[in-house]
Amino acid sequence: MERDDPVKITNDTEKDITPPWLEPMLKIKFFHNCAIHLGLRRKECNFYCTDCLEKNRAICNCCKDEEHSDHHVIQIRKSSYHEVVRVTEVATKINVSGIHTYIINGSDVFFLNERPQPKGVGAAAGKNAASPYFCAVCCRSLLNNFMYCSIGCKMAWIKNGGNASFLLEEVKEKCDSNRIGNENGSMSKDSGEGEEGSSAAKDVKHPIPRLRARPRKGIPCRSPFF
User: Fold this and answer.
1) Containing H/E element for 107?
2) Interatomic CA distance for residues 71 and 20, integer angstroms
3) CB 26 within 8 A of CB 82
4) Is residue 121 very low, low, confident or very high in pLDDT (cuts 50, 70, 90)?
5) CB 49 within 8 A of CB 55
6) Secondary structure (3-state) at 188
7) Which of 53, 62, 99, 189 has its CA 20 to 30 A from that of 162?
């Protein structure tokens, strides 16, 4: 993946390319007991509602069912003591291009924030050192050609003036403009070739099959034995 050179952006521009709920979600502490439902099961706060910015807090499963049943709620999971989210839960809300995808328990996930670098010993460190790909923010070794190791690193890249965006509208506008341009180009091409195609179709002459220049040989047979 090609890496864009950093471009200085203003705070207003940063707001335009980052959803207002994303940075607060990256800073919130998850996996603590819910103060409202202490006496109930499933009281661990590992959900976040993207529609309730005024509350801006981690919620438990009971809170989700009681107050956020019709909202877009993202479930936070853990992998090796680090917080992750499934790709399917955030890909419809933010532009995830450039973020490294990991497969954990059969699901594609993103890490929320930067993780500690692996130590310089052991098989894991040797595997990471052999990779030519690195995170543009924390320089963490990546297994594939991505630009960021986590959502938080892409956020840091944007806040430092990097040329990137989390908004889906930006990608959609580019796709729509390209699609409209391609359709207009194909329509003009079809209209210009319409008359020539119709006239050429009238003058088409089917080739006359040619007869064999030489007659076909007879069927070969074995000579008799004496």
Assistant:
1) strand 107-111
2) 16
3) no
4) very low
5) yes
6) helix
7) 53
What 3-state class would DSSP assign to 104? strand
Letter string b/e over residues 93-121, b meaning 16 or more CB atoms within 10 A of that residue's CB: bbbbebbbebeeeeeebbbbbbbeeeeee
pLDDT at 219: 72
The amino acid sitting at 46 is N
- Per-chain mean pLDDT for the chain: 77
- Could you give the CA distance from residue 26 to residue 83 in angstroms, rounded to a whole number? 10
Q: In what order do the strands lie in the sheet with 58-59?
A: 58-59, 47-49, 73-75
Cα–Cα dist 190/213, whole Å: 44
Higher pLDDT among residues 111 and 195, named by residue: 111
Specify the amino acid at residue 34.
C
